[in-house]
Amino acid sequence: MRLRGTLLLCAALLGFGCVRVEGTVAPAAPPTQPAAEAPWHVGAAVVDITPPVGYGMAGHAIEARTSLGVWTRLRAQAIAIEDRDGVPVILISADLWAIPSALPDAITERLQTEHGMSSLGRAQVVVAATHTHHGPGHFHTAPGYADHAGSEPGFDPQLFEWLTTRLASAAATAYASRRPATLEHHAVAVPSIARNRSLSPILENPEAQALIDANAGLPGCEHPQNATAMDLESDVDPCHAVDPKLDTLVARDAQSNAVIAVAAVFGVHATAMPNRTPVYHGDLFGVASRRAQDELDALGHRDAVVAVFNGPEGDISPNWRAQGRGATVALGRGLGDAVVASLDTDGLSLRGTVGYGLARAPVSGVTVLPTTVAPGKTARRAMPGRSQFGGAEDGRTRMSPRGFDEGRTVRRPRRKGQGAKRPALPPALVAMVHPKRHLPSVIPVGLVQLGPLSLVTLPGEVTTILGQRIEQRVDAARTTPGPTVSVGLAGEYLSYFTTPEEYDLQHYEGGSMMYGRLSGEVLAEAAEGLARTPRVDGVGAYEYRGRGKTSVPALRKKLRRPAKKASRVVAETLELSESVTLSFEDEGAHWPDNPEQPTTPRVQVEVQTEAGWESLDDDEGDAMVVYVTRAGRGRWTYAATWLEPFAPIALSGLPLRLKVARLDGSAVCSTPFVAGGEDRSSRAVEQGVCQDG
To answer: For residue range 549-570, what is the model confidence (pLDDT) as tens digits?
Structure first.
């Protein structure tokens, strides 16, 4: 086994290896011809899904910011897997905060009608969000989330259509590139990347102590300074109250053994960056994906695709001492290193066929049979709790000191199904803010089987213990043994799901479970039912019926004021103590005519050699940021900043320059500059002429 840096992979400790948008989706047609003899056929693809600047970013709700630029580009990775009988399944991971159910519906329809994939049904398409809190809002087809999940309300059909086009394109490209392959599953423990941010609730579960004891030999972390007083009284290390398991599904070329794709699943919130950061980025998952791809490329696995999926992360945060670029890059690179290192561990060879199921489970007013508490019903109406408005323990909002802190319960439950929850607002007002159909009341739960491996897709943010309970119930219901892996934020979004025991304390996670105390058990029952008797529930018409609408031109008018503060805020949140910046003018935010064209300016660093100017670095990684510094009528002013110009020692004394590909089709270059020396402060460079030689 290979150890990378300070990363520790534990091989045996835990028992595993260390507007109106609408349409319809047709049922799957049988495959037209069998695949060639091989265990599997696999293909993969990556697409850029970075939209124009100006959209309000979603995930931080009232604390979110409007996007003014791009740090790490938002991407989506698609992996197409086909068994020997020609039955396909598509796995898509996207740098978005959530997935509305209409998006995979629309992607499936597009694949069927425009890409000729008639053998693909909705249950065979898994679309999951990494849960970055710095991607665009405005594409969710549930009006409640379109209006309240980000800094700006409204739904943009053009953004929804563009995301559909890009994600379907990635899936079709992956499917077209499939070739004979083998599949392996690896599972290792990755400590100190994640910590439990909600210790008091998890300790209410009878399984919690066994989890903590199993992690006792792993490196821990210090108690966060912003933990509650109740949590600080506990002697439990937050890094031990987690499931540290990293699952990797590895596809290799059947002839060359080269890595085609890796699907990695790890449960942690993508919140290593603070909410005030005004630029798009994929947070630690975006860094991890790129890091792993670069390492695999260096090892000779050319064009390998790494898709990172989120797991049960409802109560799990990144283990940062301070939010910011330093923590994001360190944690992301550590996770990326772990993905690559896991490939050197003993894995389970997957053989068999593709299986799948999709249950559309009602969550409003249904009777459920929990395994640890008495049976009961969920609430009929969605209702946010008071603690939801105050934010989580590692991300308090301005509402927290105003009576919206955690632990706000009622003495006597008055609303059926909601139990101890104290409403965030008077019920009549909640009904006005969230009328019927404003939030989902039927949620899709999926099950994809790849031989002995089962992937359970869950439509929201599931806490650690609930995720374990779901996996255990699926394992017990299966007819053949094998590993079960939960993929969160997949196929739909309905906020948080906790255990009943956690819910009763009404911390942020419990207050955010919309349909009451037993909502999480709906997921467990649906997943268990699919494992026992696979089925595919029908998918009807999908549409957006919200009131608010938005668009790039509408949002663009609001950028003038925040753009004036962009340089200061970007410098603070991205820690620009050592950087090189080029200012330039370009067109304002707009949608290109061709969806393949970039929606924001692209930048790279070039070094002068005897052969002329050659590319040294680009904005595909985490070393560049481009943002707007003046917006309004006419052309805008941007800043392109190289964040780490002094890191490559070998570059000392060599002529370098920044080169920007502008939206108007032209290029602009900086005058040459030299990295290194004693002056390591931030500097601005002037515009020059883009000439080779």
So the answer is: 667 777 667 787 788 888 888 9
What is the model's pLDDT at position 26? Answer: 52
Lowest mean pLDDT across 104-118, 542-556, 583-597: 542-556
Asked whether the beta carbons of 180 and 60 are under 8 A apart, the reply is no
CB burial readout 85-110, b (16+ within 10 A) else e:
ebbbbbbbbbbbbbbbbbbbbbbbbb
Confidence of residue 387 (pLDDT cuts 50, 70, 90): confident
- For residue 127, give both structure tokens: 């679309």
Alpha carbons 683 and 643: distance in angstroms, whole number: 11
Buried b (16+ CB within 10 A) or exposed e, 282-298: bbbbbbbbbbbbbbbee
* pLDDT digit string, tens, across residues 136-190: 999 999 888 888 888 888 898 899 999 999 999 999 999 999 999 999 999 999 9
Mapping DSSP onto H, E and C, the string for 350-396 reads ECCCEEEEEEEEECCCCEECCCCCCCEECCCCCCCEHHHHHEECCEE
Using alpha carbons, select from 231, 235, 392, 391 the residue that is nearest to residue 317. 392
Q: Which helix (H) or strand (E) holds 435?
A: none
Distances (CA, A) of 61 to 399, 550, 681: 12, 17, 35
pLDDT recorded at residue 225: 45
The three-state DSSP-derived secondary structure of 37-69 is CCCEEEEEEEEECCCCCCCEEECCHHHCCECCE
Query: In one letter, which amino acid is 83?
Result: D
The C-alpha atoms of residue 370 and residue 303 are separated, in whole angstroms, by 46
Residues of the chain within CATH 2.60.40 domain(s) are 559-688
Tokens of 399: 């509402």
pLDDT score of 651: 64
Task: Return the SS3 of 134.
Answer: coil
* CATH architecture group of domain 559-688: Sandwich (2.60)
Spatial contact of 219 and 191, defined as CB atoms under 8 Å apart: yes
Q: How many helices, marked H, and strands, marked E, lie in the chain?
A: 16, 35
Type and span of the H or E element at 669: strand 667-670
Question: Between residues 665 and 43, which one has the greater pLDDT?
Answer: 43
Q: What is the largest CA-CA distance in the chain?
A: 79
Read off the pLDDT of residues 661-672 as tens digits, 9 standing for 90 and up: 999 889 999 999
Q: Does the predicted TM-score (pTM) go above 0.85?
A: yes
Judge contact between 92 and 46, C-beta under 8 A: no
Q: Tell me, what amino acid is at 537?
A: D
Distances (CA, A) of 148 to 145, 183, 633: 5, 41, 29
Task: Fill in the DSSP letter of residue 400.
Answer: G
Phi, psi of 542, deg, nearest 5: -120, 150
